[in-house]
Design a protein that fits this description.
InterPro entries: DUF7003 (IPR054272)
Order of helices and strands: HEEEEEEHEEEEHHHHEHHH
Helix content: 25-40%
Number of domains: 2
Number of strands: 11
Shape: globular
Largest sheet: 5 strands, antiparallel
Length: 288
Amino acid sequence: MISEQQILDALDHSNDGYYCSFLPLNAGYSYLIVTRLNLFRSEDEWAIAAEIVGFNPRGGWIDLSIYYHGNCLINLETYNNRHTNYYSLSPIDEDSFREASLDEMLDPAASEIFVRGIPIALSHERANYLDAGIDLLEVESNSINWEEVGRLLITQHQGLFRATDEELYKSIPKHLKKIMVLDEWHHKDFTVGPQNILSDEDIERTYNLNKEVGGLQGMSLADLTATIRSQDATTSEYILQEWTNSRPSSYETWQQLAKVLATGNTSFYQPTLAPNTHWSNWPESGWL
């Protein structure tokens, strides 16, 4: 049997791995476009596959990232010889995307891109974006950013940007049944993991190493130790606040979904908190 407490414990510690994380809707490296939750279970196993579609300004690309959580995950990606809990793909044909781009924005001459092999018309009409609740940032130049394009396209062709079952089951055993799909929910970003506290011996080794290369500028070992311990205290306070207020088990969304996964009974999901996963609620996404 699956324990709902085991599920919550796993979600609370989803940031513990080097390249693992909870569902980062406010990620600084990607402008949020759309999200989806997929829940899977068997009698003794559970899994969550969370879809996040976003535009990465550094990579210059709209991608679909799938974040996995569960007690039965397989075929996880690796980075620096460590498992990660997500992988990314793009439903958009790369050549058509590049051809439709000009200076990292939508080319004014572009008329279409191909999404999963299907030609999709591109709009340059400001009214179409405004009707979808999208205020274009580049008002004077009439340029359109790709996150804005993506946010309009997702309202018109949502299914094409969603993960297929084959893509979702990449790291989930095939015998698990998909029992619930959510396109919106109440979410809190949760980024903390274990705090790395340097021992006194580690600090002394750091001090001696930097002293040899002249990098301390007259700072004593006592000064360095005091500085590091002060930083530790500040970090500990932040981690405590995040843990108390934002960990998945601290609010109803994941408490209820853990019951759904533990029992298979979807009626346990009866949210009272307003959904907030629409991109407009995450203005800091893509800021880096």
